[in-house]
Amino acid sequence: MTWRAKGLLVGVALLLPGCGNGLAGTYEDSMGLTQLRFERGGVVVQSSDLGGVERQMRYEVDGDRIRIRHPDVEGAALVLTRVDDKTLSGPMGVTFRHVSD
């Protein structure tokens, strides 16, 4: 294997973890009341400026579905649908837009 080919393989290997599921950054609801900050390792932090509350939860991605698991209630989850790269849709018409990385 040539040095060039080895360099290409190393470059691709370094980029793959960053690709993941493409879900990263902060999303905010249309009224600006709730933010969801998706982090690496399946962690999402939900916060609200209104109540000053912040809650860390776990999330899983399955295709275009994002399941956010409630840490205190077994089996409870919020399911969001990825509409496009910048938009998530939730229950009852709630929409979250990507606002920062």
What's the structural blueprint in terms of helices and strands?
Blueprint: H1 3-19, E1 25-29, E2 34-39, E3 43-48, E4 53-62, E5 65-69, E6 77-84, E7 87-89, E8 95-100
Antiparallel strand pairs: 1-2, 1-8, 2-3, 3-4, 4-5, 5-6, 6-7, 7-8
What ranges have pLDDT less than 50 throughout 5 or more consecutive residues?
Answer: 1-20
CATH architecture verdict? Beta Barrel
Taken together, the total number of domains comes to 1
Give the mean pLDDT: 82
Number of strands: 8
Content-based structural category:
alpha+beta
Count of discrete alpha- or pi-helical segments spanning 4 or more residues: 1
CATH classification class? Mainly Beta
The CATH topology label is: Lipocalin
Q: What's the Cα radius of gyration?
A: 17 Å
Q: Tell me the distance between the termini.
A: 37 Å
Helix share bin: 10-25%
Strand content: over 45%
Coarse morphology: globular
Name of the CATH homologous superfamily = Uncharacterised protein family Atu4866
Largest sheet: 8 strands, antiparallel, barrel
Spatial order of the strands forming the largest sheet: 1-2-3-4-5-6-7-8
The helix/strand series, from N terminus to C terminus, equals: HEEEEEEEE
Question: Main traits of this protein?
Answer:
101 residues; alpha+beta; Lipocalin; 8-stranded antiparallel barrel; 1 helix; 17% helix; disordered N terminus
Structure at a glance:
This protein is an alpha+beta fold and 101 residues long.
Description of the structure:
It is a single chain. With 101 residues, the chain is α+β, with helices and mostly antiparallel strands. The protein has one domain (22-100): Lipocalin (Beta Barrel), CATH 2.40.128. 17% of the residues lie in helices and 49% in strands. It has 1 helix and 8 strands; from the N terminus they run αββββββββ. It has one helix at 3-19, and strands at 25-29, 34-39, 43-48, 53-62, 65-69, 77-84, 87-89, 95-100. Strands 1-2-3-4-5-6-7-8 form an 8-stranded antiparallel beta barrel. Mean pLDDT is 82; it is low at 1-20.
